[in-house]
Design a protein that fits this description.
Elements (H helix, E strand, L loop, with lengths): L1 H23 L1 H10 L1 H11 L7 H25 L1 H8 L3 H5 L5 H35 L7 H28 L3 H17 L10 H12 L14 H25 L7
Helix pairs in contact: 1-2, 1-7, 2-4, 3-7, 4-7, 4-8, 4-9, 7-8, 7-11, 8-9, 8-10, 8-11, 10-11
Length: 259
């Protein structure tokens, strides 16, 4: 029992240090500024008193702007730094001298990533929704199904993209460059193809979730026969598989202190 408690305490230290690092460095401040983009855009529309600005326009803007740019870039920048920067800065050997296993280190860092990124992404999403409803003169609960759909998609996107980019961070030396190609080329191009090819992209399952959970609007026009439940299971399974692969690669890696 004492060993378990000691292991949990060490994992908590790694988790808390990861959260603090991801939120307080220049990287965290830059991604926070990016995450605020929906607030600035929708706030500008409200201040300009755009007549067509309502929950329908909110849906049209938030998929390409928030899910496909803000979420992808934020998860990419934060997740690829979890392990790779420790390696490049030569701090990984020091971390491994502590009595904590490699899988525990990776998982603690990943959960620290999840906490920090959701803290960056969820408040701007809530604020953007509140601005939209206030401009339309509606109560905050009027279109709550749309908000719930985006919240679910945001959490699952953070989970799936983060796990994959964490895997990249232990697999390749330049995970950010590779991740940019996958996040902004593969996801955009493959996700827009007709037929079954979009099933090979994360955004397809996120759009499938939005389609089913949103009761009306342009989100329901997306062509997909995948239910929200199945799409969620696919994304969770993908995240678990990516983390398992990351642990395997990380476990087999050797880190020597540089002179």
């Amino acid at each position: 029992m004492m060993d378990i408690l000691a292991g949990l305490a060490k994992s908590w230290v790694v988790f808390s240090l990861t959260v603090r690092y991801l939120l307080t460095t220049r990287r965290g401040l830059a991604t926070a500024a990016l995450a605020a983009t929906p607030i600035l855009l929708l706030g500008s529309l409200a201040l300009a008193r755009v007549e067509t600005f309502d929950i329908v326009l909110f849906q049209l803007l938030m998929v390409p702007l928030f899910l496909q740019v803000v979420v992808v870039f934020t998860t990419l920048v934060q997740a690829t730094s979890l392990i790779r920067e420790e390696i490049e800065d030569n701090t990984m050997p020091y971390l491994l001298t502590r009595p904590i296993s490699k899988p525990a280190i990776l998982l603690s860092k990943y959960f620290g990533y999840l906490a920090s990124v959701l803290l960056l992404l969820v408040p701007p999403l809530l604020a953007a929704y509140a601005i939209t409803e206030a401009h339309a003169g509606d109560a905050l609960s009027t279109d709550r199904e749309v908000l719930i759909a985006f919240l679910v998609a945001t959490v699952l996107a953070t989970l799936a993209y983060g796990a994959f980019f964490t895997f990249l961070s232990v697999l390749v030396r330049r995970p950010l460059a590779v991740g940019l190609g996958i996040g902004f080329v593969w996801e955009f191009v493959v996700g827009s193809f007709p037929g079954d090819l979009p099933r090979l992209s994360i955004i397809h399952y996120l759009r499938s979730i939005l389609k089913e959970l949103a009761p009306f609007g342009p989100l329901r026009l997306y062509t997909s026969d995948v239910s929200a439940g199945i799409a969620s299971l696919v994304l969770v399974a993908f995240a678990v598989a990516a983390l398992v692969l990351a642990i395997i690669v990380f476990q087999q890696s050797e880190f020597k202190q540089k002179a």
